[in-house]
Fold this sequence. Notes:
The chain is of the alpha+beta class. It is built from 21 helices and 34 strands. Helix 6 crosses helix 7, helix 8 packs parallel to helix 11 and helix 9 runs antiparallel to helix 11.
Amino acid sequence: MDALDPIESVNTFIGTKDEGNTFPGASMPFGKAHSSPVGSHYAGYRYDDTVIRGFGHFFLSGAGCWEQGGLVPILPVTQLPASFDHKRYGAKYSHDGEIGKPGYYKVKLERDITVECTATTRAGVERYTFPSGVNATLLVNVGQANDKEPVSASSVRVVDDRTITGTVETQAFCGGRPYLTHFITRFDRPFKEFGTWGPTGSKPGQRESAGGAGLRGAWVTFEPGPVTAYTALSQVDERGTEANLEAETSGKTFDELRNDAQDAWRKELCCIEIETEDWDERAVFYTALYHVLLQPCTASDVDGRYRGFDNQVHQADGWTYYEYFSLWDTYRAHNQLLALLRTARSKDIARSILAIHEQGGWLPRWAYANQETNCMTGDPVTPFLVDLWRFGHLKGFEEQAYRALVQNVDGVPPQSSRFQGRSGNPNYLANGFVQYDKRFPKKGQDTDPHHGASATLEYALADATLAIMAEELGHKEDAERFKRRGLNHRALWDHSVTDRGFTGFPRPKLAGGAWLTPFTPQGSEGFHEGTAWQYQWLAQHDVPGLITALGGKAAAEARLDDFFAYSDLLTDPVRTVREKWVVGPYDYYNQFRYNPNNEPDLHAPWMYALIGKPEKTSVVVRAAQTLFVNGPAGVTGNDDLGTMSAWYVFSALGMYPVVPGTGEFVPHAPRFRRAVVHLENGKDIVIKAEAADVTKTQVVQRIRSGWLAKSRDRIELAELLSGTALEVDLHTLSN
Length: 735
């Protein structure tokens, strides 16, 4: 394999345009804190921005909702601004000389000020270089964050001539509740002047400012020369910020910390090696892998303390507590990729989910900081945890996890609980479907009956997945019960509905069992961020039932052909995917085709393989990969905490985890001539496809390995974990 540095292969600007919502700044793998520019976009930075408002210290990568951090943004200036609103005092900048690499970001602002960013796991670090002879002033803003990220309360205190501390209370993601972050900022040399500001203006020499919503912060001025600022975060208390800062930055220069961060990223990214002579190919692949390894974020402080879902402080001894779980997205590919590549972290991720259950009483759906946002619908935590069990990452906790999952799939959290859980369960358990009811009360942004049809399909998939775990743990009666419930998706199939010449579609039902009327399979009613066309494929656990509903294998193939515009893919895949598949990142409805911008049908290309047409899976996947390019608009849709990137990594390697809980990967044409996946157990997965050529339409002719010397339509997890060499013979189709 080549010896190219994977750090140089990453372009952190990929996804910073067209609602990819990634951030270009510095981080550590799975880090709590970051250092990245804040612009006018709710995700932080957008490549089209002309102004940077500051360099914030917490971000999510690729999320699609408002309230995404940007906490404690610091901006260098040469004089105090007339207004302390960062929308007015932001600095213009240039992309010339701008650098975005793992662990390092650099940009030049107006007035010839250069900013460099790096990070430790729990601290963001910047070096500010001013023109010669110019006093250096830094604005530390605690009253504002990313655009559309409300700050409901904040405080700032100038402790001494090197240190500022404070708190920021911000709104949690997608309409969650406020949560509190503590911070400390320490400078590498003393400042000579300082002041604070509040809603009434600036007060030179004043050490403190605190209160509710409104402009608030501190400014410090240094003698001429570079200044390095170290900002550590903690959700526990001020002592946590001090311990984090001391443990991770004490005695280290900016350059030393940057080298540490890049060494950490180099070690992480080296878990996969690829063979390609195309620089853009390398950049797309390693940037996707980089985005996968950003989240979930470390939550526990260096002393192991963290704030739990009961709002109490808990201790993680000998393990790391993680937070920010976008489960509706990540259960589909991101979770499995981490489970394969990062065993130790995945075990701690599983333990973190169980800690949420212990302290909050229920399992999460979209957990942000130390609270459940109740964002999205269905039951993603079940396939998420069952897959972690399948990978062996719940050893010692199997029964605890199983009990929590049974509580989740069989019950509904009480009204007093912040968790909403499977709110459609009463009707689902009694009648086999979640009713469509837009008036159903909700605890957050979403609730399942508002999207009853898709929730039914999600519940059924979760039940079928849990049946696998129940069977292997010896809970036979539960297994049979969950298997039966796994077929509930069939209850929504209406054989009287016709669209585009195809008959039979999943259709929402009302509480009494009547069909929703009027109804169109291309409409928004009853399905969450998708249509009946896209959700009809969310029955990968029951392919025989789906084939029967579709009218047989030939009918299923014909419908998939229409769904993907397959004949057009064969003649012009690049144009077809962009003109016939792709819609805006939030245009989920009025669609009858594959939507690669969103999660509900991410697995659909492999439905061809599941019905016995694997060659068509390879054609569709190769076409979809053309949407990932080496540029700011290089991610399709929101990256959703690494989900789309994980989809790309799996697709480029030539296998995908289509059916949760099975430990089976469905193969397709790999993108590279050779790839090596280095597992933490010391074993390697070697994937060879010597004829691979991404300029051509290729399909799998045969897969061979020492494990099973015959062609296969599945690759088993046991084979991968034991180390294997897969030789993939490819056949090129003539267009």
